[in-house]
């Protein structure tokens, strides 16, 4: 049987080492030899002896809560085998986190990660309900984290004298050492009259970077993983 469908870039290759790698720009392959963690509903295929366990109270004390921001739950994957993960054909990126690093990621942008990473859920300082009630995932330790983004991400440097203002529905993540607060870009009277529709942004200050996507969040559909 012949087709461009069977081109080498589309074929799953034999595993060479444990851990994650990009299968292509839209999916991540993880060679499991023990344990790893992933967003529930993101597994698209697997082979080998793997068990998938929905977690409600955390795993081994590492997860403070097994729920990421926007109410997206996690699962533990255990055993020996290979698994592929994706989420609605979003672009996938692998971030190497080293000791001393701290990365804040919106829960809706977490795909999967190594068990060697420490993980916590924190309310975004200065945001609260007025800022969308942001509950972001803070990753530290050493290991790999797979991040998803609808469209091509934009990474914007943040400097002491150059704060960055981002739409809370478009932000993907940022350097955890940055200070966050709400910024109102128009008066209350302007909001009543209609305004620009962009009344409140998340302001980031300090030294680091912020990642945004070229679209705002879509409404969550009932029953959607």
Helix-strand pattern, N to C?
Answer: EEEEEEEEEEEEEEEHEE
Proportion of strand residues: over 45%
Structural class by secondary-structure content: mainly beta
Q: What's the Cα radius of gyration? A: 19 Å
Tags for this model:
225 residues; 17 strands; mainly beta; 8-stranded antiparallel β-sheet; 2% helix; disordered C terminus; 6-stranded antiparallel β-sheet; 1 helix
Describe this structure in words.
The protein has 225 residues and is mostly beta strands. 2% of the residues lie in helices and 51% in strands. It is built from 1 helix and 17 strands. The strands form 3 sheets. Strands 1, 2, 3, 4, 5, 6, 8 and 11 form an 8-stranded antiparallel beta sheet that branches. The chain has a 6-stranded antiparallel beta sheet with strand order 9-10-7-14-17-12, with no helix packed on it. A hairpin with a 3-residue loop joins strand 4 and strand 5. The C terminus is likely disordered.
Write the layout of secondary structure elements.
Blueprint: E1 19-24, E2 27-39, E3 43-54, E4 67-68, E5 72-85, E6 91-97, E7 102-106, E8 110-113, E9 117-123, E10 135-141, E11 143-149, E12 154-158, E13 164-166, E14 171-175, E15 179-184, H1 188-192, E16 200-205, E17 208-212
Antiparallel strand pairs: 1-2, 2-5, 2-8, 3-5, 4-5, 6-11, 7-10, 7-14, 8-11, 9-10, 12-17, 13-16, 14-17, 15-16
In short:
With 225 residues, the chain is mainly β. The chain contains 1 helix and 17 strands.
